[in-house]
């Protein structure tokens, strides 16, 4: 289910001349009452600087080159771990940000610090990675879709030079993902392309903003294609992107309305930092795919539930719902309550980005999940 941000044009609605047989051109873009796009988009928000845990002595930012279809894409990732000798068994947590126009590793930092700083039976480390085309990774003009994003995740985990290759070799890693990231990871695990010890899906989503509102019939798919092509175009694409996504008033409104549960948690520094992400070179390519449904890992609630059912008896699965999420997103999360394949279902405060708005609460639930499944088995 898509959710995080309502994107609106300044006028009452946005229309494209979808019935014309003529080739689409920027001049044909117009504002009218024919088709109103009220867009919901999953996004991340808060930019509170992480407070360093006294027990974490090593935190590194680095990059890894992803080789894809002749492209070499610099991928930003961060590692948090305890330094020095430690006789405890070691395991790694791969944390994957929610897919959105302002997606960033920053949303997981406080949770990572909280968990890595624990002194339990296992020495947990964390790796937080930005998606290609998002955050601080390179943003090349690729044909992004759910398959490409899944391929990236599988490559990041399985490549011989992967930053977590030592853990993957022994399958000593777990995955925490938010929004679409969680569902894409579940799809990769179901197919056998990834083999973590467990997965936690935090506020999981599955549908892009436009398809969830307007459906997926052939006429709408044509319209989505036109919109996507316009957003990717050299000149008019930036113009439309600036109106739909890249402006501070829209970002602030989105975050206060439903990405965070408490509007008071959305500070000017949060808005400014996320706005800066939307100004990076190539920033519009992944949002163009996400808004129009190309990054959707499934096409229906039934497929969403079935995807999780495919993990039944294979690994522990935690689904974390939120008490303040938008109605449609909440309905999709609730569809997983008691569902086959879901070994634990919990609800925490927050809306669409609880790991950033309420990191301590989320970290406590995630660590409890780890304790229940690994500490006594170390």
Automatic annotation (TrEMBL):
How is this protein named in the record?
AB hydrolase-1 domain-containing protein
**Signal peptide start and end residues:** none
Gene3D superfamilies from the entry?
alpha/beta hydrolase (3.40.50.1820)
Q: Which InterPro entries match?
A: AB_hydrolase_fold (IPR029058)
Entry GO terms, CC: chloroplast
Residue ranges annotated as coiled coil are none
């Amino acid at each position: 289910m898509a959710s995080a941000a309502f994107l609106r044009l300044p006028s009452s609605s946005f229309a494209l001349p979808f019935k014309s047989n003529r080739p689409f051109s920027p001049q044909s873009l117009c504002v009218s009452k024919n088709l109103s796009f009220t867009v919901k988009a999953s996004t991340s928000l808060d930019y509170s600087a992480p407070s360093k845990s006294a027990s974490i002595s090593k935190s590194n930012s680095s990059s890894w080159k992803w080789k894809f279809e002749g492209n070499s894409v610099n991928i930003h990732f961060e590692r948090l771990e305890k330094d020095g000798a430690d006789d405890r068994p070691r395991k790694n947590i791969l944390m994957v940000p929610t897919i959105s126009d302002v997606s960033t590793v920053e949303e997981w930092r406080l949770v990572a610090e909280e968990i890595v700083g624990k002194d339990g039976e296992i020495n947990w480390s964390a790796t937080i990675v930005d998606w290609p085309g998002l955050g601080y990774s390179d943003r090349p003009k690729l044909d992004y879709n759910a398959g490409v994003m899944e391929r990236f995740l599988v490559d990041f985990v399985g490549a011989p030079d992967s930053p977590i290759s030592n853990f993957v070799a022994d399958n000593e890693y777990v995955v925490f993902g938010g929004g679409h990231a969680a569902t894409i990871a579940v799809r990769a695990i179901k197919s056998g392309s990834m083999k973590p010890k467990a997965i936690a899906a935090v506020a999981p989503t599955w549908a892009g903003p436009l398809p969830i509102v307007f459906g997926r019939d052939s006429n709408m798919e044509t319209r989505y294609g036109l919109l996507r092509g316009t957003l990717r175009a050299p000149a008019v694409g930036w113009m439309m992107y600036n109106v739909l996504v890249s402006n501070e008033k829209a970002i602030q409104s989105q975050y206060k309305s439903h990405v965070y549960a408490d509007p008071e948690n959305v500070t000017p520094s949060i808005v400014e930092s996320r706005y800066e992400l939307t100004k990076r070179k190539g920033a519009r390519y992944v949002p163009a795919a996400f808004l129009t449904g190309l990054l959707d890992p499934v096409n229906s609630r039934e497929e969403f539930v079935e995807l999780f059912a495919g993990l039944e008896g294979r690994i522990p699965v935690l689904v974390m719902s939120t008490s303040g999420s938008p109605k449609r997103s909440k309905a999709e999360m609730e569809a997983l309550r008691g569902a086959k394949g879901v070994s634990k279902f919990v609800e925490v405060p927050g809306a669409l980005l609880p790991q950033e708005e309420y990191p301590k609460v989320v970290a406590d639930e995630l660590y409890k999940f780890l304790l229940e499944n690994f500490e006594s088995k170390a």
